[in-house]
Design a protein that fits this description.
alpha+beta, Beta-lactamase, five-stranded mixed sheet, five-stranded antiparallel sheet, elongated, penicillin binding, Beta-lactam/transpept, Beta-lactam/transpept-like, cell cycle, hydrolase
Length: 580
């Protein structure tokens, strides 16, 4: 019975499992359609959509990395580094690649980067962003600790931070860079292309943790910036800054500036301003502290202009060194020209020693206005000095065609014309080079540019001797004398103009000079703005600064003394001639 029963069910099961030809064709057709769909999709993705998909993949995992170029050095003329770049690290994030991060790790990240948790959260808030800076230019050790946290989407990259070893001593010359390493002021700005170099490129694939998997293109190496060598001598720069700072503080002045030129080449050996600032830490720095006064501030130079206005009268043959002038007060229209310390008559040396407005103006008025203007113009007044500093002031020298006689008279003793300290220092190169005006340079050059004759050698030599005599008995440059060296110079005290009125109690104390006087090596220009400690005459305030800077610089340069070492300096109690 059992066997019979089994045999009876088998035919029924076989017929149930048997497929008809139509059913087979349907199944095969369905499989074929699915296969064709898969092939079509593959072709569509591999051919039609290939570029799109590759770009999408690369957008998620391919990264263009910048390989920063090392910014070039800035050095003084002897190779002393004044601006260098040190390697630092920058932490950045790709919020789009960040997985959920434990709050404890985020708090630790914020602590390491000296940020508040709220500040960190705000940077990471947009989860669609693929790049955001978290903290720039941090210590490499801190960056290593950040990466040790193992937070996905957090990465680091190397950058360079600018460091200025001399700090505030050269800040107005060197300037500084921003956080992106671009020059913002001074030489850093004016020589940006030379210093910056060219960044390199590296194209890589990264995983979701920010780790580099492989390079996908040839690396383009960076090309570092060039070294810029200045004409500045850091030893003299330090000396100039120290003495200027002491003078400003001692005289309770508003500010001051110093320019030191090489009398042979016109190269800038020092340029100092006070107040100053530390370019390594600019927190709390004000525009007043950053002002490069010696280059951009304009002022009326007062009596320091007299040697120049007298020189053109000598060249024109209107007078000679021994000419005696009537120096009684006189009028030009409604204006009275007078001396604060009058004398009935003075020769050229006396005009300089007594700082006579009457004598200087009478000599100037002997010269035709066009010739007088041409001489001032040839000295560079009214033109930018072209030393390479950004923002150089041109000054103001009005066209002679619009002058009135009183204007030519006042310009002879330094009013009615505006100049920078840099321009005045350059103008005095004619007395150290037989009438040749030297071009100024901030950059060291193996072949200095030749100068341009603006005054005949006889007139230049006569004025040089007069200025050297001015440092002797009865002269206004006595306080500028240097032990062991002769000097020549002229002091000046200029009232400040506010609006259209000259203020009686605000002055600039000035001194322009050269040393040694007999064969000059240096030209030093000093300006002290608004001294208020009791003294304000240039001969009392600015001349001693010249003495200390010139004396120290001559010794630094190993210039041989040209006078005995018992050429005593004038005591500060000695009356100083008025130098308005």
């Amino acid at each position: 019975m059992r066997s019979h029963s089994l045999n009876h069910r088998t035919p029924q099961a076989s017929s149930a499992l048997r497929m008809t030809p139509g059913r087979v064709r349907f199944v095969l057709g369905a499989i074929g359609v699915l296969f064709l769909a898969l092939v079509g999709r593959a072709v569509y993705l591999q051919v039609v959509q290939q570029d799109f998909l590759v770009n999408q993949g690369e957008a998620r995992f391919r990264r263009e990395m910048t390989l920063p170029a090392n910014r070039g050095l800035i050095t003084d003329r002897n190779g002393e580094p004044l601006a260098i770049s040190t390697p630092v690290q920058t932490i950045w994030a790709s919020p789009a690649d960040m997985e959920p991060v434990p709050p404890a790790k985020l708090r630790e990240l914020a602590r390491l980067l000296e940020m508040s948790p709220q500040e960190l959260d705000s940077k990471l808030a947009d989860r669609k962003r693929e790049f955001v800076y978290i903290k720039r230019q941090i210590n490499p050790e801190i960056a290593d600790k950040v990466m040790a946290l193992g937070i996905p989407g957090i990465a680091k990259q190397q950058e360079y931070r600018r460091f200025y070893p001399a700090g505030e001593i050269v800040s107005h010359i060197i300037g500084f860079t921003g956080v992106d390493g671009k020059g913002q002021e001074g030489v850093e700005l004016s020589r940006e292309k030379m210093l910056s170099g060219v960044n390199g490129r590296r194209t890589v694939l990264k995983d979701r943790r920010g780790q580099i998997i492989e390079d996908v293109a040839a690396i383009q190496p960076p090309h570092d910036g060039q070294t810029v060598a200045l004409s500045i001598d850091y030893r003299i720069q330090y000396l100039a800054y120290r003495e200027l700072k002491n003078a400003v503080e001692e005289n309770k002045a508003r500010a001051g500036g110093v320019v030191v030129l090489d009398a042979h080449t016109g190269e800038l050996l020092a340029l100092a301003n006070y107040p100053s600032f530390n370019p390594n830490n600019r927190v709390g720095v004000t525009p007043e502290m950053m002002r490069n006064r010696a280059v951009i501030d304009l002022f009326e130079p007062g009596s320091t202009m007299k040697p120049l206005s007298i020189a053109i009268a000598l060249e024109e043959g209107k007078a000679n060194r021994h000419t005696v002038l009537d120096t009684h007060s006189y009028t030009i229209g409604p204006a009275l020209i007078r001396d604060v310390s009058p004398s009935p008559s003075l020769d050229i040396e006396g005009v300089i020693k007594r700082s006579s407005n009457v004598g200087a103006s009478k000599l100037a008025l002997m010269v035709p206005p066009k010739d007088f203007w041409s001489f001032y113009d040839s000295l560079g007044f009214g033109h930018a000095p072209n030393t390479g500093f950004p923002g150089e002031a041109s000054g103001r020298l009005r066209d002679y065609k619009s002058w009135r006689p009183i204007e030519q008279a006042t310009m002879s003793f330094g009013y009615g014309v505006s100049v920078s300290l840099l321009q005045m220092a350059r103008a005095y190169t004619i007395f150290a080079n037989d009438g040749v005006l030297l071009p100024m340079s901030l950059y060291k050059s193996p072949t200095p540019t030749s100068g341009r004759r603006v005054l005949n050698s006889k007139a230049a030599e006569d004025m040089r001797q007069v200025l050297v005599a001015n440092s002797g008995e009865g002269g206004g440059a006595q306080q500028g004398r240097v032990i062991g060296y002769s000097i020549g110079g002229k002091s000046g005290t200029a009232r400040k103009l506010e609006g259209r009125t000259y203020v009686a109690d605000k002055h600039r104390a000035l001194f322009m000079g050269f040393a040694p006087g007999k064969s000059s090596r240096l030209i030093v220009a000093v300006m002290i703005d608004e001294p208020s400690a009791g003294k304000y005459y240039g001969g009392a305030v600015a001349a001693p600064v010249f003495s200390r800077i010139a004396g120290g610089a001559l010794r630094v340069l190993n210039v041989q003394p040209d006078e005995p070492f018992n050429n005593a300096l004038v005591p500060e109690s000695t009356p100083v001639p008025v130098d308005y």
